Amino acid sequence: MSHIDRSVTNHEVIPVIESSVFSEHSTARLAGGLIARNGVPLPGLETEYAAHFHLRKKVYVDQTGQLAESELQDDGTDRDEDDERSVTFAVIENHQTGARIVGVARLILRGEHRPLPVEEFCPDVLAPGELGPESVEVSRVIARHETAAMQNLVQAHLFALMLAYLSAHELDRTFAILEPWLERHVKGVLAISRIGELRYVEHYLDYNVPIEIDIPASVERVNAHNAGFIDQYRAAEPGMAYFGRTYKGVRKERAA
Q1: What is the CATH number of the domain that holds 185?
Q2: Of the residues 6, 12, 108, 237, which has the maximum number of CB atoms within 10 A of its CB?
Q3: In whole angstroms, what is the distance from residue 104 CA to residue 11 CA?
Q4: Can you give the pTM of this predicted structure?
Q5: Do the domain assignments include residue 4?
Q6: Residues contacting residue 171 through CB under 8 Å, at least 6 positions apart
Q7: pLDDT tens, residue by residue, 82-126
Q8: Does residue 171 sit within a domain?
Q9: For residue 250, is it within any domain?
Q10: What DSSP state is assigned to residue 125?
């Protein structure tokens, strides 16, 4: 069963990188957008994509124990075959220490020949042939920050990013597999419904429930709480959208 190891802090799991993402937006606090398609980073985002795997490993293996060390690749990442059929997103913070990968998520696109994880781990909830190639599963959603308010904001950006992509590309039914506590949290943000009973999923080392996300209703709900996020992400794709304002330059001057 997954539990957060409090000895592994959020500060420790957040990767800090050299990035050009903020080179033309030096005062922005956050940037968010698509960083890879089908396991291939977008041009200029190779470092960001590599770092997002570091965040995934530090959270899912070291901090929460949701994945076993034995499932990692030789390079120490949790990259799997689903990355090769996913679109991957990141939220990056413009911090005085550098660019920090504070949020990541991926959408697994089903395709013609391989079932989604929800079909494999919860085989009783969907009939054979029920899903088409445009069906999607939300996966590897992580938001981490030292402050709860910023972590919640990063998560809101991740939801907006995925909803912007899902609605803009007119993809089909969208699913996720969640721990019950996360299901309760997500229910307050998105329009979701259970499609099966609670069950132990060996791959995630915990009890989970399969859910389906109502995309139009979720877009409406997120727009009501975070006006403009989804529209900004739609307009920026495939580039980054920028939000907020940082005062890191002021902090550096005062420190000097």
Answers
A1: 3.40.630.30
A2: 108
A3: 16
A4: 0.91
A5: no
A6: 107, 109, 134, 135, 136, 165, 215
A7: 999 999 999 999 999 999 999 999 999 999 889 999 999 999 999
A8: yes
A9: no
A10: S
